[in-house]
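ok posting inputs for the zinc ion job
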Amino acid sequence: MRGILTIERGEVYDPQPLGERNLIAGGGRTLAVEAAAGSMGLPRERHIDAGGLRVIPGLIDQHLHLIGGGDGNGISGRVPELDARTVLAGGTTTAVGVLGVETVTRGLLLLLRKTQELRAGGLSAFMYTAGMPLPAQNMLGTVFADVSLIDQVLGAKTAISESLHPNTDPHLLAALAGELMRARTMTGKAAVLHCHVGGLEAALEPLFALHEKLRMPLAQIVPTHVNRTEAFSPVFAHAMRFAEMGGIIDLTCCVSRIDGNPTGIDIPDAVRRCLDAGLPIERITFSSDANVPVAVRAADGSLSGYRTAPPSVLFRDLMRLVREAELPLETALLPVTTNPARVLGLVGRKGAIRPGYDADYVLIDPSDRIRYVIAGGEIVFEAE
Ligand SMILES: [Zn+2]
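and the output
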């Protein structure tokens, strides 16, 4: 750990706009957020002049295929693993890794090992245990044990309304939910059920049933990909209902027309539709689903190839929310900072620029490009 880092005269969004501030970081944490006028006495061990730059909290990506995915694409799903620098350079300083469809060779132990490697590279890396199929896979004998005993594990992934993993037995989903509710009660961790929603007609019905029949707290259930298949399932309407009930829904980047998928709703449109329906921005998160091969389809729906989205689509869509959906930066930031921190049980440590929080910052220039990324008080990326 190196010495104190000072960032001077940046326009700080904590995510709320604070105006020009000096930041002092040390020991991996933010130590002080001070009025810029008092810069005379700042320590000069390591120093960034942030005049003209905006400083935002490091982004949180709660669905990232750190070891690749193989999203039903067979051998073309064998994309390379991500390295820490690629994730950090995109402005993401906290990432939760998930398994994809290919779980034979890309399993939980590899994902756990990957989080260790990425942590050594400066990224705050976490993971979900289990994966799309039920009964849920795990590492230590049960999902409960994984969440209880492994620091990196923040919850479990599963799939509903997905033809590749039909999971039609509600008892298996209930068993997983019970393990997670027990883990949340006994460990104080978020123990979230991170739920891939496929394109089948049932959409979010299995999650409504978990809430109604098992009294699973909505705050513990995260339906993701809910903007992916509106063209052929009621998933987006169900998601709006879930959010109206008080739940938080997770939208996925790169599932829309601009990324070659005509069936999904683009992030700026999806967020705008939620807000126009009266949903508070606090009920929305979005995540990248990066490093998994995404099908590219022609206008008639036929498959024309695959592409892999980089982790930086999260930052891209944050800035598009400002430019295209015309949200103030402080509002657009919530779905990728404080909202996912709340979902993942990381409040007090992640998602905000406050004394005591991890010193994770992204410095943005007037052209909306990333100039610096700071993670744990270290400069981990600097634009040339
Ligand atoms: Zn995914």
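notes: Residues 63, 65, 69, 98, 100, 289, 292 surround zinc ion (CB under 6 Å). The longest helix spans residues 170-187.
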